[in-house]
Amino acid sequence: MSKYKIKNSLWFVLFEGIKIYFSNIDKFFIYMLFPVLGQVVGIILAFAFSLGFAEKIVNKVDNPIHALLLVLLLAIPGLLIFAKAFWDYMVAYVALNSMTEGAVTTGRVYDFKSHNEVATNRTLPYVGFLIIISLLMSIGSSIFFIIPGFVLWIYCILVFQVFTFEPDLKFFDIFKRSFLLVKGNWGRTFLLMFILAFFSLYILTEGITVVFDYLNLTDSICKLFNFITNTIPLDFVNKVLVYLKMPIVTNDMISKWIFVSILGCIVSGLTLPIRSICWSLWYKNLSDLKDSKPQVTTKKSAKATKRSSNNSEGI
Fold first, then answer.
1. C-alpha triplet 211, 214, 220: angle, nearest 5°
2. Distance CA 116, CA 238 (A)
3. What burial class does residue 122 get, using C-beta atoms within 10 Å of its C-beta: 0-12 exposed, 13-18 middle, 19+ buried?
4. Which positions ≥6 away from 105 have C-beta within 8 Å?
5. Residue 197, Cα to own-chain centre: how many angstroms?
């Protein structure tokens, strides 16, 4: 992205990101369709087949171990679809950064396969990179590290961009580079994250939910999840809630929660491009800022420079 100059403005980054996204929204939508819906469909199929036939299998198979294996086998097709879609989704985290570079230099988004190769040609390093991120997120999300973990995550929020645009860096150098880029710009980086999350994870989800409610589609869709809610022992759960003086729950409430959660995941996934675009532009902005700063010459280095120049003059 060296040919593309970005103003040192968070709002400029947002404006450019939105412009790139909506000018190529059809391409981004098609590109993200399977990675997002594939995960949802895979999970639903896994639960539908395993839970839907579990009772019949248990009644017909005497050996409980054999019955469990048959139930697990029924879940495999859905899990395979989920795994493929999940991998494609993680590849998109890197490929979308590469697409952004192409969009800002050529004005077009094309050749998805070549952008995917930014990750697929480095599969083992990328998998190792994802494992490290997962471990750090697990530690950071524990109750003892929530606040410091959140602060550190903001410092590390550009790791996917660094992985994409600086492929020669090693794992921990990637995190170090992101930390150095965000250092001194933590507040603005947090604000950008908040705006992107609020828009793509809340506003759009709530807006689409209102549309479903207006068209009277919510109740019909929620009934599709009855096969899950019917397996929950609500009588026991509600007895506990009544004892704790808390509101009871119903099948409809759980189905509505499942529907909203799935809808939120779909919206979040389909809007990943706009977040990746903005973070790629923000990476470019901070890289220009940091790399263009003049090196600070210390007294010690100045003396060493002067000494070496005197020695060369004497020679």
1. 90
2. 48
3. middle
4. 1, 3, 4
5. 11
Are 235 and 241 in contact by the 8 Å Cβ rule? The answer is no
- 8 A C-beta contact, residue 295 and residue 17: no
Long-range contacts: 181-188, Cβ < 8 Å, 24+? 181/283, 181/286, 181/287, 181/290, 182/154, 182/155, 182/156, 182/157, 182/158, 182/286, 183/155, 185/286, 185/289, 186/151, 186/154, 186/155, 188/10
- In this structure, are residues 249 and 238 in contact, taking their beta carbons and an 8 Å threshold? yes
| DSSP element (H, E) containing 146 | helix 146-155
The model's pLDDT over 133-171, given as tens digits with 9 standing for 90+, comes to 888 888 777 777 778 888 888 999 999 999 999 999 988
Residues in the chain: 315
pTM for the full predicted model: 0.80
Alpha carbons 114 and 120: distance in angstroms, whole number:
10
Q: At what angle do helices 171-182 and 146-155 cross, to 10 degrees?
A: 90
Tokens 């589609």 belong to 217
